[in-house]
Specification:
It is globular, with a radius of gyration of 17 Å. It contains 9 helices and 4 strands, in the order E-H-E-H-E-E-H-H-H-H-H-H-H. Strand 3 and strand 4 form a beta hairpin. Strands 2-1-3-4 form a 4-stranded mixed sheet, with helices on one face. The longest helix has 21 residues. It starts with a strand and ends with a helix. It has 2 domains: about 80 residues, Glutaredoxin (3-Layer(aba) Sandwich); about 110 residues, Glutathione S-transferase Yfyf (Class Pi), Chain A, domain 2 (Up-down Bundle), CATH 1.20.1050. About 55% of the residues lie in helices and about 10% in strands. Helix 1 packs parallel to helix 3. The protein is of the alpha+beta class.
Length: about 210
């Protein structure tokens, strides 16, 4: 049985990514939710991960931390369903996902994920460049793969999960985007799994 240890659904962007991969693959799993920014968080998380961060995927004695590492494990566990089947397309999707994983720090720091809020926070030039680069990435993917389906690479894959928290950030802070990027945002926001996550986040905020 798979277990995913996650943080608050309203604000934990890294927790969202493997959660969406699990949902889209249809893999059964249980959740352990830990409250971020509380005195109990680190002692509780130490039971599951030496890295001191969520998410963590647990299967038996195996503990996997880091969202992308978890997603890769789920790709293997599903028989190769979490990335595009074509090798060249898969390499492109991995490149796009790795850029998200390691980049866009100005955007992340200035616009933290808050799935339920609508905020007006200005970006500096570096953050604005991050937005422009993401818009460019989305336009390029949709131009190449729109004939295969509505997601970045046609069929839903890890790349879409990697950019889902960015979609929520854009929904919160409302930057100016191209029509193609706006259409991809709406596609992502209409995902029933993401909507479930957002409803859970709203309940967290209401209970706080």
């Amino acid at each position: 049985m798979l277990t995913l240890v996650i943080g608050n659904k309203n604000t934990s962007s890294w927790s969202l990514r493997p959660w969406l991969v699990l949902r889209h693959l249809g893999l059964a799993f249980s959740e352990i939710g830990l409250l971020l920014d509380t005195p109990e968080f680190k002692p509780q998380l130490a039971r599951y991960s030496p890295a001191g961060r969520v998410p963590v995927l647990i299967e038996g004695d195996l503990h996997i931390w880091d969202s992308l590492a978890i997603a890769e494990y789920l790709h293997e566990k599903s028989g190769g369903l979490a990335w595009p089947a074509d090798a060249a397309t898969r390499a492109h999707a991995r490149s796009v996902s790795a850029e998200m994983h390691s980049g866009f720090s100005a955007l992340r720091q200035t616009w933290p994920m808050n799935a339920t809020a609508r905020l007006n926070v200005a970006l500096d030039s570096t953050g604005a460049s991050d937005v422009a680069r993401i818009d460019e990435l989305w336009q390029d993917c949709r131009a190449k793969y729109s004939g295969d389906g509505p997601w970045l690479f046609g069929r839903y894959c890890i790349a879409d999960a990697m950019y889902a928290p960015v979609v929520l950030r854009f929904n919160t802070y409302a930057p100016s985007l191209s029509p193609v990027a706006k259409a991809y945002m709406q596609q992502t926001l209409s995902d029933p799994h993401l909507q479930e996550w957002m409803r859970d986040g709203a309940r967290e905020v209401g209970a706080a």
